[in-house]
């Protein structure tokens, strides 16, 4: 399907943060763009904002003045909805209210020709419900940009029950032609990103609730071991807790209270207290003048005279750790076994979703110290460790010393099932798997959405493939039995992949 020709005029209704950004994107792509808002002042402000943005690029030498002027001139302020009649595509970015949006689309249907495509930028309303009051619901599609629209690459193209497939395909092609990375999704709560990302916040909030670690430590672990650009606490402080909490509640309610999406009381209390994050000067962290960010919990320095590392069996994804040990000059002795490292008094293993205390007893492992998942063990600068209740202090110190020898800082956290990065990834992959299983989106689009929409270091499904579906499935199964909660139930698709020994993209 071809993108809309640049000769086709675009209209944007709503000239707020999103609408003016979308108008800029379409004008940059070469279209003339009508910009309408119920407030003439908003249109004026919107267009001035676009001009200011582009001028900044000119000043930095990234754009020619003439090109910037031409783009601004293609943005045509409209004072009446009727002026949008010549548009071939109208993108709505007004207030998030079903009835108000339906009313505007109803009027647009009468003003614009039969062939007009109507698109909504809604984040949380059903495209199917929005279309239900229209004469031609097949011409309505979701075109969900991310904030700020000129910068963020992702566009979720949402089809409602009645949306014509060709209309969705044309919007997909048009978003591509506008330099965006579009993905397809069906009209379901949260679409892709706002659904699949929920566990990124939820698991850390739960770990905090259970006193496993504090925000600064969890943020540091997800950044330094998980390679996420920001940790969940600093990120929600930036997004605003009112906004993030409202999205979680909306997805939770829309899925009829599915515990996978259960909101956190910790976040609710921040909202109740008016601690909305950066914008209010206080969230998990203080943003008051001169306030310092608390340091992550970091183990003090230990050393060990031990010169040997015993590697028992296949370490799987954590093999990079062994290579790092070799490079530091430790003598590595390989033996048959079940993926364990023995160093000094310590027996180290990658978390499999069980608490160290439980695994130590069940598997008969003395002095067990569990380590967390890292995106790349060869370059990780911090790793979480958790010890069993029965583990000796000397064994804990040996395990810490080993990682410190490799230049890895250690955050010793409480004995929580699945630790931090492993548990977060398992739940992200599980949610992505369910979205695929339920026909919301393809595996490739789930991963692309999480990378382009949220800058994740890797798509959760490709990352799951790298570990092996069986590893993720086992972590989830153990989390589920540890908590005895439906929240951790593994997706059927992940379960099937595990038994079939396949991945989402590759044979594993
Ligand atoms: P905003 O509050 O900055 O702008 C909304 C604009 O719509 C205002 O200028 C308002 O005057 C105008 N408006 C309201 N009712 C109108 C009507 N009946 N006719 C014409 N104009 C009307 O809001 P924002 O953030 O730009 O959001 C707009 C839409 O985009 C919402 O549906 C929101 O859910 C969605 N969205 C927002 C994102 C964000 O991060 N802010 C991200 C993705 C989607």
Overall description:
The chain has 508 residues and is an alpha/beta fold. It folds into 4 domains: 10-187, Rossmann fold, CATH 3.40.50; 195-272, N-(1-d-carboxylethyl)-l-norvaline Dehydrogenase, domain 2; 308-412, Transcription Regulator spoIIAA (2-Layer Sandwich); 421-500, Orthogonal Bundle (N-(1-d-carboxylethyl)-l-norvaline Dehydrogenase, domain 2). Helix content is 44%, strand content 14%. It has helices at residues 17-28, 40-59, 65-74, 98-111, 127-131, 165-177, 193-196, 198-209, 215-224, 232-239, 241-254, 265-273, 319-327, 356-362, 393-405, 421-437, 443-454, 460-467, 469-483, 492-500, and strands at residues 10-13, 33-36, 75-78, 89-92, 117-120, 140-145, 154-159, 181-186, 308-312, 331-335, 340-343, 346-350, 368-371, 382-387, 409-412. An 8-stranded mixed beta sheet has the order 3-2-1-4-5-6-7-8, with helices on both faces. Strands 10-9-11-12-13-14-15 form a 7-stranded mixed beta sheet, sandwiched between helices. Helix 1 (17-28) crosses helix 2. The two termini are 34 Å apart. The mean pLDDT is 97. It binds 1,4-dihydronicotinamide adenine dinucleotide. The site of 1,4-dihydronicotinamide adenine dinucleotide has 23 residues, from helix 1 and helix 4.
């Amino acid at each position: 399907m071809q993108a809309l020709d640049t000769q086709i005029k675009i209209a944007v209704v709503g000239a707020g943060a999103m609408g003016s950004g979308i108008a800029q994107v379409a004008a940059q792509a070469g279209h003339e763009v009508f910009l309408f808002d119920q407030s003439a002042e908003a249109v004026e402000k919107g267009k001035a904002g676009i001009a200011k943005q582009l001028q900044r690029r000119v000043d930095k030498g990234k754009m020619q003045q003439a090109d910037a002027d031409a783009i601004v001139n293609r943005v045509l302020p409209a004072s009446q909805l009727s002026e949008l009649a010549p548009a071939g595509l109208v993108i709505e970015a007004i207030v998030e209210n079903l009835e108000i949006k339906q009313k505007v689309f109803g009027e647009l249907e009468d003003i614009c020709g039969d062939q007009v495509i109507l698109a909504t930028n809604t984040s949380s309303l059903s495209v199917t419900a929005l279309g239900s009051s229209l004469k031609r619901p097949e011409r309505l599609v979701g075109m969900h940009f991310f904030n700020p629209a000129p910068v963020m690459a992702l566009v979720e193209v949402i089809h409602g029950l009645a949306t014509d497939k060709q209309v969705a395909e044309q919007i997909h092609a048009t978003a591509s032609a506008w330099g965006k990375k579009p993905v397809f999704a069906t009209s379901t709560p949260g679409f892709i990103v706002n659904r699949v990302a929920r566990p990124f916040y939820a698991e850390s909030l739960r770990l905090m609730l259970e006193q496993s670690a504090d925000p600064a430590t969890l943020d540091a672990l997800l950044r330094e071991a998980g390679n996420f650009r920001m940790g969940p606490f600093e990120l929600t402080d930036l997004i605003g807790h009112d906004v993030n909490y409202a999205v979680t509640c909306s997805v939770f309610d829309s899925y009829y209270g599915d515990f996978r999406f259960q909101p956190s009381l910790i976040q609710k209390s921040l909202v109740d207290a008016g601690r909305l994050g950066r914008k209010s000067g206080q969230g998990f962290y203080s943003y008051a003048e001169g306030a310092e960010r608390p340091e992550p919990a970091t183990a003090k320095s230990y050393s060990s005279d031990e010169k040997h590392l015993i590697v028992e069996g296949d370490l799987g994804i954590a093999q990079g750790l062994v290579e790092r040990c070799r490079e530091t000059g430790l003598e590595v002795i390989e033996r048959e076994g079940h993926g364990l490292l023995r160093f000094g008094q310590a027996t180290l293993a990658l978390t499999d979703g069980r608490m160290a205390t439980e695994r130590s007893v069940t598997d008969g492992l003395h002095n067990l110290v569990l380590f967390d998942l890292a995106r790349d063990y060869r370059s990780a600068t911090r790793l979480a460790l958790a010890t069993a209740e029965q583990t000796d202090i000397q064994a804990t110190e040996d395990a810490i010393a080993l990682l410190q020898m490799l230049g890895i800082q250690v955050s010793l956290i409480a004995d929580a099932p699945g630790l931090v990065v492993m548990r977060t990834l398992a739940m992200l992959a599980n949610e992505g798997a369910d979205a695929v299983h339920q026909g919301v989106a393809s595996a490739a689009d789930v991963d692309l959405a999480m990378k382009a929409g949220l800058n994740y270091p890797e798509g959760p499904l490709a990352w799951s493939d790298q570990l092996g579906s069986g590893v993720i499935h086992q972590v989830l199964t153990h989390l589920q039995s540890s908590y005895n909660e439906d929240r951790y139930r593994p997706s059927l698709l992940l379960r099937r992949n595990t038994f079939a020994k396949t991945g989402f993209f590759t044979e594993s």
